[in-house]
Every structure is written in C-alpha cells, then in structure tokens.
Write a structure and sequence with these properties.
Layout (H helix, E strand, L loop, with lengths): L7 H31 L2 H52 L13 H51 L6 H28 L8 E4 H11 L1 H6 L3 E5 L6 E4 L1 H17 L6 E9 L2 E8 L21 H6 L6 H11 L3 E5 L7 E8 L4
Parallel strand pairs: 2-4
Antiparallel strand pairs: 1-3, 4-5, 5-7, 6-7
Helix pairs in contact: 1-2, 2-3, 3-4, 4-9, 5-7, 7-9
GO cellular component, one term: membrane
Organism: Chloroflexus islandicus
InterPro entries: HAMP_dom, HATPase_C_sf, HATPase_dom, His_kinase_dom, HisK_dim/P_dom, HisK_dim/P_sf, Sensor_HK_Regulatory, Sig_transdc_His_kin-like_C
C-alpha cells in the first residue's frame, strides 16, 4: 500500500493547502467579528453574503495559485532527485563516468555538485584500482620471466647446473618476494591497518643505525655520507622501527640514484616545533615533470634504471603513508635532472 502522505509531492501540496485553509478560516472569523461590530443588524445579512462571496473567490484563487506553484516546485525537486537516483544506480552498476545535470537553485545545485564530486572520486578510485592491477601484473612479469628463462636454460642444457645459475635465480625470487612484501605493507598502510608502537626516542640514533646498515652500498658506490648535527639528541614521538624503514628508503634511494663520487647529506633539526630530517644528494635529480608523481604507487621517473636496481616504485608511497600515520609528512624537491634531490621527513617533536 502506498502511503501518499509520505510522498514529497503530497506533503508540499498539503502544506500549501493548509496555508490556504488557515488563511480563509482566519479571514472569515475576523471579517465576521468586524461586521458584527460595524454593520447595522438590518444590513448584516447582505454584507455577510457579499463578504462570503469575496472570500470564496479569494479561496479558489489562492487554491489554484497554491496548487500550480506546488506542482511546479515539486516537479523541479523531483526531477533532480530522480536524476540523482538514476545516476547512483548506474554508478552502482559500474558506470563511473555518470554525472547529473546541475540545476539552477542553490540547494539542489549543492546536492548535484556533491553527487558529481563523489562520482568523480569513485571514478578515480576505480581508475587507480585498474591501474594497480595492471602495474602488479607488470611488476610480477619481469622476475617471473627471468626465473622461467633460467629454468628453460637449465632444462635445455644451455645453462650449466652450477651454483652461479641458482644464485641468479635466487636473485629473481628475492625480487619477487620483496615486491610481494612491499605490496602487503602498501595495502595495510593504505587501509590504515598498520600497527604503530609510539615511543619517544632520539631520531639521530636511528639515522646513525640506518647509515651504518647502508654502509656496504655506500662503499660500493664510492659515496660519502655526511650526518650533520647528529651528535645532540633530537627527540621525536613516533614508531622507531617505522621511522627506520622510512629513512632506509630515503637514504637508500639517495645511494641508489647518486653516481660514484657523490655526496649524501643527512641533516636533522627542530623546525617550527617539528623534527625534520633532510636527506640531500648530489645525484641524478628528478625532472620537474616527474616530481609531482614520485610518491604515487609504481611511479618511476626512470623505469629502466630503477627497475634494474631492484626498485618497484612503491617505496616512497609506503614511506609517505607511514609518515602520515605518525602525524608527519615527506616532501621532495629537485632543481632538475643532474642537480640532485632533497627529501624532507617531518615528524612530531617528542618531550621527556
Ligand atoms: P624505487 O623502488 O623505484 O626507487 P621509490 O618509490 O622509492 O621506488 O621511488 C620512486 C621514484 O622516485 C624512483 O623510481 C626514482 O625515479 C625517484 N627517486 C626517488 N628517490 C630519488 C633520488 N634520491 N634521486 C632521484 N630520483 C629519485
């Protein structure tokens, strides 16, 4: 059974009619009271009949005007609501390019605009999801093709069944494992499901540890790593393991993208009541057209180079999400190709 009073059209028409009825009743009562006070009893009947006639005409006119305006109003509102309902059904069915017409009235325009913004956000999420599947498949293909190649070589007897071949295969398997691990962290960190153990600690300790961990690669690349102001304690409130993970990515990238003989400077300081770690290198730099995208998943400014060095292009995405989760941020700057890069990590200050 349809409850017609629940429908917006009948509610608006009912409201208009109620106004007409209340107006007519109030007018009749006031007119009657006035007539009884001002008109002589012999003229009362004639004047009352004239007033009733005038009130009837006014009531009919008001009813017609009320009905017409409510019908027009209802049509405008219902058209917008129906269009939004239709569009949301199409979006639910996977048509993410769906948008609604934006009406002229302020309130309906605001609703239509919010709806279109939501549709656009959903479309972008869908595009990113599709791109993510493509990227994951692409990233998995490279090490898998490598392993397949080694196996075929072994089966055909082209490659010797020697430790070197197996070491090369192991290298590809490790790459695969790193990628899968990174993807798992990425999905957790993006869903906000990463567990963090907040403590207050000296960030310079972590910097020293990470630099020591990267020492073999630093020596391999004949690089110099300078830690400025690392001898005074600088307290931060965050998860020390996650901070180490971020710094390993930032300093590791600096080592990876700085040619032999280059220099990497790690500077820590308290700026505007926040702990700041700046990782500056004299490496290959980042072209301005790539700079805005380097924190996006799988984005590589130079795909051949970073893939060759084992990079999957999601290290910075994870690092930035981790920094956000700890109330901080990471920003990147480069004056251009060949002009080095600067990454700045900010974290909340810690107090004893
Ligand atoms: P990858 O594992 O490929 O290094 P990241 O997410 O850590 O992935 O970095 C994304 C991209 O940003 C890299 O592929 C590289 O093009 C660029 N990049 C990051 N750090 C530096 C740096 N210090 N110097 C130059 N380019 C960098």
């Amino acid at each position: 059974m349809i409850h017609f009073w629940r429908q917006l059209r009948w509610q608006i028409i009912g409201a208009q009619m109620l106004v007409v009825i209340v107006g007519v009743v109030a007018l009749s009562l006031t007119a009657n009271a006035l007539l009884e006070q001002t008109v002589s009893p012999d003229q009362l009947a004639t004047v009352r009949a004239a007033v009733i006639q005038a009130l009837t005409v006014a009531a009919i006119a008001a009813t017609i005007a009320g009905l017409t305006t409510s019908i027009l109003l209802v049509q405008v509102i219902l058209r917008s609501l129906r269009s939004i309902a239709r569009s949301s059904q199409r979006i639910a069915a996977g048509r993410y390019d769906e948008r609604v017409h934006v009406p002229a009235s302020d309130e309906l325009r605001a609703v239509a605009e919010s709806f279109n913004q939501m549709a656009e956000a959903l479309e972008q999420i869908e595009q990113r999801r599709v791109a993510m599947i493509g990227n994951v498949a692409h990233e998995l293909r490279t090490p898998l093709a490598g392993i397949e190649g080694y196996l075929e070589g072994l089966i055909d007897g082209v490659l010797p069944s020697a430790p070197e071949t197996f070491i090369d295969m192991q290298h590809e398997v490790r790459r695969l494992r790193r990628l899968v691990d990174d993807l798992q962290i990425l999905s957790r960190v993006e869903a906000g499901q990463i567990s963090l153990n907040f403590t207050t600690f000296d960030i310079n300790d972590v910097i020293r540890r990470v630099v020591a961990q990267l020492q073999p690669q630093v020596l391999d690349g004949c690089l110099q790593v300078v830690c400025e102001r690392a001898n005074q304690p600088l307290l931060t409130r965050a998860d020390p393991d996650r901070v180490a993970q971020i710094l390993l990515n930032l300093i590791g990238n600096a080592v990876r993208y700085t040619p032999e003989g280059g220099c990497i400077t790690v500077r820590s300081a308290l700026v505007d009541e926040q702990v700041q770690v700046v990782v500056e290198d004299t490496g290959i730099g980042i072209a301005p057209e790539h700079l805005p995208y380097i924190f996006e998943r799988f984005y590589r400014a130079d795909p051949s180079r970073s893939r060759a060095s084992g990079g999957s292009g999601i290290g910075l995405t994870i690092a930035r999400h981790l920094a956000w989760a700890m109330g901080g941020d990471i920003t990147a700057y480069s004056a251009g190709l060949g002009k080095g890069s600067t990454f700045t990590l900010t974290l909340p200050r810690g107090t004893v």
